[in-house]
Amino acid sequence: MKKLNGIKLKHRKNTENSETVSMPVPAKIKLPMSMHMGAPCIPLVKTGDMVKVGQKIGDSDASFSVPIHSGISGKVIAVSDYQTAMGTVCKAVEIESDGKGEISEEVKKPFVADKQSFIKAIRESGLCGLGGAGFPTHIKLNPKTPVDTLIINAAECEPYITADYREMLENTEDVLNGIELVKNRLDIKNVKIAVEANKPEAIRKFDELVKDDNTVETVTLPPSYPQGAEKVIIYNSTGRIVKEGQLPSDVGVIVLNISTVAFIYRYIQTGMPLMTRRITVDGNAVDKPKNIFAVIGTPVIDVLDFCKTDIDAVKKIISGGPMMGMSIPDLKMPITKTTNALLAFKAYHEHRISACIRCGRCVNVCPLGLMPAEIDKAYKIKNIDDLKALKVNLCMNCGSCTYVCPANRKLAETNQLAKSLIPRK
């Protein structure tokens, strides 16, 4: 089977052998009520309230949403407006730690007897996709069409990030137990653990543990970017094509990030909701790159200080990987549910943009066969019909086109702006 196009990147997995360490509990956390796709939560607490670890402090009546829980015990010192890195505004709850770490009475092992109680429990856990997109997991696990294949996304194809790799090595049994839970509750027949070839130790571990289970197999992916993108990993693992406007479940597939499926197992065993994240901290401004566990809501500055970062030398901080990550404008911004890496760099160069030279490199590397230069042209004249014909909505913003463009044109950024011109159904 022919693999989809992509690009070769220097992976720079400097922390792949760094066992995860836990950060101290922060003095304060700030919890934005929008850390996932879908409707933002409404605060359930007010200034002056005392909260405990695991207590639900935000929720929504909307089905396409997940609740938010406190990772520390202490006092609510503010409920205020907060501007996210995307520019949207939501409420945020700020909590000052009392240092006690008291566990909330709400934290109980969930009752799971069937599929629906399983889905309900996953929603109550506050879980959204931990690979970066933040899609509510309970929605993904309750498709409207039959599903026969579960793909575990262990590609982690972005440079620098090794958080999922450490999950594979440190919590292998949790991953496999989580797979078994999902497989049984959703009656899924086949499981594919998709790992890039540059992670031989993880592949060896999984191969050994699933060798006697004919329903689970390890799929080795080429070490190229963007193997972890949903449409790409589905095609490269199964040969199935997710067309424009379709969901993976429309072709009989569910894709779960490897850290997501491991968390599912731990939550079902303990009832402890999503309150911490494993994060890779790296970049040439970081003196001690490492993988850490941090309480969700911890200020970015606290994480960087813990890893001995030269803050005065920092010119650029990215949440996530360098290809699809988001620049952080304020060091006081918090770690969120979708934060899997913080990268701090001493230099940032804004390259001069020049005219398109019609070289076609952007077309050659696009995994979905799009024509970014043509999309760019149609966007400039706001030709919606051409944008639809060029299938701009298929763009997953992997950034491969921008990366290879010799004219330094921001093609991936233009694609996203172009998508916003097309009315959504």
Provide a quick synopsis of the model:
The chain has 425 residues and is α/β, with parallel strands linked by helices. It has 13 helices and 17 strands.
- What is the overall pLDDT average? 95
Note the total helix count.
Answer: 13
- Major β-sheet, in short? 6 strands, mixed
Helix vs. strand class: alpha/beta
Q: Tell me roughly what share of residues is in helical segments.
A: 25-40%
What sequence of helices (H) and strands (E) makes up the elements? EEEEEEEEHHEHHEHEHEHEEHEEEHHHHH
Percent of sequence in beta strands: 15-25%
Q: What is the spatial order of strands in the main beta sheet?
A: 1-14-13-17-15-16
In total, how many beta strands? 17
The rough form would be described as globular
Whole-angstrom Rg: 21 Å
Terminal CA distance reads 34 Å
Low-confidence segments:
none
Oligomeric nature of the chains: single chain
Which helices and strands, and how do they pair?
Elements: E1 21-22, E2 28-32, E3 42-43, E4 50-51, E5 56-59, E6 68-69, E7 74-83, E8 89-97, H1 115-124, H2 137-140, E9 149-154, H3 163-170, H4 172-186, E10 190-196, H5 200-210, E11 216-221, H6 230-238, E12 253-257, H7 258-270, E13 276-282, E14 290-295, H8 300-306, E15 316-319, E16 326-327, E17 341-345, H9 361-365, H10 372-380, H11 384-389, H12 400-404, H13 411-419
Parallel strand pairs: 1-14, 9-10, 9-12, 10-11, 13-17
Antiparallel strand pairs: 2-8, 3-5, 4-7, 5-6, 7-8, 13-14, 15-16, 15-17
Helix pairs in contact: 4-7, 10-13
Which key features would you list for this structure?
four-stranded antiparallel sheet; alpha/beta; about 425 residues
